[in-house]
Amino acid sequence: MTLAQLRYLIAIADSGLNITLAAGRVHATQPGLSKQLRQLEDELGFQLFVRKGKSLDAITHAGEQVIERARVILAEATNIRSIAANLRNESRGELRIATTHTQARFALPAAIAALNASHPQVSVHLEPTRDADVLARLEAGQVDLAIISSTGAAPTSGIALPAYYWQRVIVTPSGHALAGRARPPSLTELAALPLISYDSSLRPESSLRQAFEAVGLTPQIAMTAGDADLIKTYVRAGMGVGILAEMAVRDDDADLDALPADHLFAPCTTWIVLRRDSVLREYTLAFIEFFAPHLGRREVARLMAGDQTNAAWANVPHWHGRHAPSRIQVA
Amino acid sequence: MTLAQLRYLIAIADSGLNITLAAGRVHATQPGLSKQLRQLEDELGFQLFVRKGKSLDAITHAGEQVIERARVILAEATNIRSIAANLRNESRGELRIATTHTQARFALPAAIAALNASHPQVSVHLEPTRDADVLARLEAGQVDLAIISSTGAAPTSGIALPAYYWQRVIVTPSGHALAGRARPPSLTELAALPLISYDSSLRPESSLRQAFEAVGLTPQIAMTAGDADLIKTYVRAGMGVGILAEMAVRDDDADLDALPADHLFAPCTTWIVLRRDSVLREYTLAFIEFFAPHLGRREVARLMAGDQTNAAWANVPHWHGRHAPSRIQVA
DNA sequence: CGCGTTTACGTCGTTCGTAACGATA
DNA sequence: TATCGTTACGAACGACGTAAACGCG
């Protein structure tokens, strides 16, 4: 058993059991991986994968267990290299972030630009990931940190640092009846309109859905999209009223009206999630502080060490606090 | 960085920074380790050890961190091999146990004999370890399980399974005044006598000491020894009254009188402690069940998974329950 | 016939042990 | 001078890549 064999094993598992693809990803040749996999299986004395003909068809039960352990080994090996890189003030490196479209499009650019200015040698990889898969990618070690939102409690896997709070807003075409009035819209009024929101609002545990159901209403979701830009496009086209994150409404949306909806829906928290026991590169800490200024090196170190005292929770800002005045109308 | 390099690194750290000794322990040559260590340091770009002349003098701060990570890596590599060995019903193996003298001498022999009968290919290594170091050796991966006693709460490091309860007994030479009476001895009476007990009873947090101090008495410890046999020897010699674990009093101590002391001292619990996230060989589970029959495969699996429901706690036996009638007089 | 895996083979790099050297107490 | 670590060297092993063969859809 060697570190290379374990690395190949993980690459194969993460490439959908396609050895050729995995070989490319680890910058090696396909016969090399094939042979090393065989040798590992020989040494362990059982199959890690189920073969169908010559191809790999599935992961063995024992294979799953081994892969789980191998991930820990590779993560710790990376940690050791991070310790070394930090110690020698190595400025190059990469930062892999798994997050959702809204974060990547509206919340992250400022922080990434700042990081790029202060650490030009760091290449940032934004990995677009479906909501449900973000934490899995983090746990699998495919990314260095995850940025994800939730209503209420922090994600249970990994270590979650609260970055900021945000609210939903109601978006209509400019001049829509809803926007002109003195009184903010109610849930009942919204339920009568065709709504456009994120894909995740179709899930029964969606906080949007739950807000309606709590008062016995069923929203009429005319359309969903994974992407705030798409939602805005279809709102412009008159397909319905958009409900989306306040970060997604910007100055260049002059042809849209945005109404606050914090009286209707519970606030959301955006979390930075880190792997437990991971050693962070210096630039990762810098990025975290750019993104969430209340999370300085000291606070992150304390939270990573498992300190549950909520000192960091006290200063979590609302999204507004850190950016140019929003276009959201105050009713 | 290779697994071998990390193994050598740990061996050196665990051999008191003596490379020659470490080389012997990993069955390799001294120049080999020396070179691999240098290569690892070159790759990481910093010194893992502080040199004094040619010798290793201390571990670097960064070295400590790397060693910590390397231990995790090696432990997980061992776990993978354990998965494999279990899967192929490998009957050979070794079981390394760190424990105190009393356990090794009086509590473990039956379980080890039973294990040897059912798994003759398993070689058991009893590692005599000072009380305070038992858990450190477990965490360092030098042993597979630790067996340790405490009054009250479970050890915090690792996963502690309660094996049995026990009490202290008062041991006197046969015919001693204390033993002949109708009433059991009081703390006040004991405090007036020269006592012989374990080394650990000198520590201020010792539960023996605390029992006396709770009622404002200071015991007169005439002598301590690490070893119940030594204590009994000096009790026989008339040097004083022994206070020791009930397991240490056996049928062949006919020339000693033993009085129960559970009305004076709080009960103790003996724990089996396992590393978190360790994969146990089948024979380790067998051993645990021999030693503590209420800890079957299912219970251990549940506790290892982090289940905090105290189902296993309900059936923890007292030492008496599992052995031939004790010689301890019931007052 | 294309895609993906395995087999075969030659080269290169690396590790390891032996032996000699060096430093330190 | 004994102990421990480093350097030097040669042999052997093992990994890797290229090229060709094999199976499968």
Structural features, described:
The structure is a homodimer of 331-residue chains. Chain A folds into three domains: 3-85, Orthogonal Bundle (Arc Repressor Mutant, subunit A); 92-165 and 268-330, D-Maltodextrin-Binding Protein, domain 2 (3-Layer(aba) Sandwich), CATH 3.40.190.10; 168-260, Periplasmic binding protein-like II (D-Maltodextrin-Binding Protein, domain 2), CATH 3.40.190.10. The first copy, chain A, is 40% helix and 21% strand. Chain A contains 13 helices and twelve strands. Chain A has helices at 3-14, 19-25, 30-44, 61-87, 101-118, 134-139, 177-180, 187-191, 207-214, 228-236, 282-291, 297-304, 311-314, and strands at 49-52, 55-59, 93-99, 122-128, 145-150, 159-166, 168-173, 194-198, 220-225, 241-245, 256-260, 268-274. In chain A, the strands form three sheets. Chain A has a five-stranded mixed beta sheet. A five-stranded mixed beta sheet of chain A has the order 9-8-10-7-11, with helices on one face. Chain A has a two-stranded antiparallel sheet with strand order 1-2. In chain A, helix 1 (3-14) crosses helix 2 (19-25) and helix 2 packs across helix 3 (30-44). Chain A is globular and about 75 Å long. Residues 321-325 of chain A have low confidence and may be disordered. The interface between A and B is medium-sized, with 25 and 24 residues. Chain B binds a DNA duplex (25 and 25 nucleotides) through helix 3.
Mean pLDDT of chain A: 90
- What is the name of the CATH architecture of the largest domain in chain A? 3-Layer(aba) Sandwich
> Structural class per helix/strand content of chain A?
alpha/beta
Count of discrete domains of chain A: 3
| Backbone shape of chain A | globular
Query: In percent, how helical is the residue content of chain A?
Result: 40-55%
Oligomeric state as shown: homodimer
